[in-house]
């Protein structure tokens, strides 16, 4: 059986294996970098008696490839280094060691992705996992042909990059005095200082590590909400110049950036200059913009003055003003900008990409998609892997596809990407994180890469057995079969069950 995940869109299984002692590589110079990782992984099998021939082919899709494994040679066709790299990720899944010898399953593949944008998002604010764990996750993403890694690096509960120009973001913003535990409805806390921060050199190391695996890193520094860690470090950014603490609860902060002070814009433009110096290679930048509570703005004299100046009736309308000023200031960097869909207002710059995330159908957001807004699909009911498996079982991740009530054919055409996410308010260690992610990440990528006519969940589960061996070799703690499809009736799942059942599942895995 051919055990490739995601399933190639055209596949002929020749049902035999070929034993070799090494590769004799022949590749055009303009594509050869796409082989670098394979050559590193199989350095003991280079210069053998078996040909690996790479040919240029002008595919219409930049990520397309073809792969043919015969008795005499492996023949790969690709247009780009990335297409060649994806061919090597499929080839890696075809190869295995038996009796000390390298064997390759014979097949013919012609493949290209359904979705242009295939991303995973990691929250390292609420809990921090460090560069080695991030690299491990990136290795798995690369094997599965993800092309973006969305990195959530600031929020109410912490700021996770040490920018030397803004030292208080580390000294104050990276530290919370205690952490809410179990769920966001109770009052239980771990009474311990939580303090982590990446140095710029570590960020650059991870960016380069991902780049060698043809994954682009997307930074997210959420604004104007979710900014307690920034405001705690620099109180003049608060409407009332208030000294606050880094937020300790999972959600509910109202002390956010003031959108009506000129010094706010001077600060964030300077901060983004540092962010985009560090993430210079990033094609996309995520501005956040979600869950903005305007309560403080409603009593702020600066905001009241600005509302009068702009003829606004609601304080919440100031978010559109804030976003467009931030967007205008970033134009010179020539980046593609993303915002969560609830932060995109009617007057938000039309070029900003909408990321749809909400649990229940948001008809206002869906209307924006139908009206032409480029969109990334990531509803939490399907793509948030911090949910308990009983709430979000593997079969739903795999089979659901794009489901938005009242989405038009035109609107569907505006969805160019999909993203799965892990929000880690209550996921506090790497083993728990891996349990929640895998194998749901595997199911997600097949729904994003493989055309629906080729989906087959039973076939996917059989291939997953092979991938579990790969995860075992990497030391990954993944969810086992007896739990990942243990679906409950959604109507009887309470919010507290959703939070606490994750621990029950993890401990019983």
Describe the structure.
With 509 residues, this protein is an alpha/beta fold. Helix content is 34%, strand content 21%. Strands 8, 9, 10, 17, 18, 19, 20, 21 and 22 form a 9-stranded mixed beta sheet that branches. Strands 1, 2, 3, 4, 5, 6 and 7 form a 7-stranded mixed beta sheet that branches. The chain is globular, with a radius of gyration of 24 Å.
Describe the structure concisely.
With 509 residues, this protein is of the alpha/beta class.
Briefly note the structural class of the backbone.
Answer: alpha/beta
- Write down the Rg: 24 Å
The portion of residues forming beta strands comes to 15-25%
Largest sheet: 9 strands, mixed
Write the layout of secondary structure elements.
Layout: E1 10-20, E2 23-26, H1 36-41, E3 50-56, E4 65-69, E5 73-78, H2 81-94, E6 95-98, E7 101-111, E8 117-123, H3 131-143, E9 148-155, E10 158-159, E11 161-162, H4 168-171, E12 175-176, E13 179-180, E14 189-190, E15 194-195, E16 198-199, H5 200-211, E17 216-221, H6 228-233, H7 262-278, E18 284-286, H8 295-298, H9 301-310, H10 318-330, E19 336-340, E20 353-356, H11 363-370, E21 375-377, H12 380-383, H13 394-399, H14 409-413, E22 415-422, H15 430-437, H16 440-449, H17 457-474, H18 481-484, H19 495-507
Parallel strand pairs: 2-3, 3-5, 8-9, 8-22, 9-17, 11-16, 18-19, 19-20, 20-21, 21-22
Antiparallel strand pairs: 1-7, 4-5, 4-7, 6-7, 9-10, 12-15, 13-14
């Amino acid at each position: 059986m051919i055990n490739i995940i995601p399933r190639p869109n055209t596949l002929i299984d020749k049902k035999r294996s070929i034993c070799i002692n090494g590769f004799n590589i022949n590749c055009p110079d303009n594509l050869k970098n796409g082989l670098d990782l394979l050559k590193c992984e199989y350095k003991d099998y280079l210069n053998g008696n078996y040909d690996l021939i790479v040919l240029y082919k002008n595919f219409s899709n930049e990520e397309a490839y073809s792969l043919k494994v015969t008795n005499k040679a492996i023949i790969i066709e690709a247009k780009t280094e990335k297409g060649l790299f994806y061919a090597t990720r499929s080839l890696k899944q075809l190869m295995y060691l038996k009796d000390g010898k390298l064997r390759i399953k014979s097949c013919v593949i012609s493949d290209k992705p359904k979705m242009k944008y295939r991303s995973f998002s990691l929250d390292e604010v609420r809990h921090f996992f460090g560069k080695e764990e991030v690299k491990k996750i990136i290795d798995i993403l690369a094997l599965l042909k993800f092309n973006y890694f969305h990195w959530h690096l600031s929020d109410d509960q912490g700021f996770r990059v040490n920018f030397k120009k803004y030292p208080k973001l580390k000294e104050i913003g990276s530290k919370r005095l205690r952490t809410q535990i179990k769920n966001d409805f109770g009052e239980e806390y771990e009474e311990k200082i939580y303090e982590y921060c990446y140095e710029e050199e570590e960020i650059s190391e991870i960016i380069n590590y991902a780049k060698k695996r043809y994954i682009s890193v997307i930074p997210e520094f959420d604004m104007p909400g979710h900014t307690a860690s920034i405001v705690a470090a620099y109180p003049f950014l608060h409407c009332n110049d208030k000294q606050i603490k880094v937020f300790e609860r999972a959600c509910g902060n109202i002390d956010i950036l003031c959108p009506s002070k000129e010094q706010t814009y001077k600060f964030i433009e300077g901060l983004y200059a540092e962010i985009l110096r560090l993430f210079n290679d990033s094609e996309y930048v995520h501005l956040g913009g979600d869950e903005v509570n305007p309560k403080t703005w409603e009593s702020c004299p600066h905001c009241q003055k600005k509302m009068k100046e702009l003829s606004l009736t609601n304080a919440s309308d100031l978010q559109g003003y804030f976003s467009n000023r931030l967007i205008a200031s970033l134009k010179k960097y020539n980046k593609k900008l993303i915002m969560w869909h609830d932060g995109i207002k009617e007057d938000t710059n039309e070029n900003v990409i909408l990321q749809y995330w909400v649990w229940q159908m948001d008809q206002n957001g869906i209307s924006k998609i139908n009206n032409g807004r480029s969109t990334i699909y990531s509803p939490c009911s399907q793509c948030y892997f911090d949910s308990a498996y009983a709430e979000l079982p593997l079969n739903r991740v795999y089979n659901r596809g794009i489901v938005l009530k009242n989405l038009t054919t035109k609107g569907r055409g505006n969805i160019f990407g999909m993203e799965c996410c892990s929000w880690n308010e209550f996921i506090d260690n790497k083993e728990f994180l891996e349990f929640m992610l895998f194998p749901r990440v595997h199911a997600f990528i097949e729904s994003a890469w493989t055309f629906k006519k080729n989906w087959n969940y039973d076939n996917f589960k059989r291939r997953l057995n092979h991938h579990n061996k790969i995860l075992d070799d990497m030391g990954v703690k993944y969810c086992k079969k007896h739990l990942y499809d243990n679906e409950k009736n959604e109507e009887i799942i309470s919010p507290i069950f959703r939070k606490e059942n994750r621990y029950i599942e993890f401990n019983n895995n």
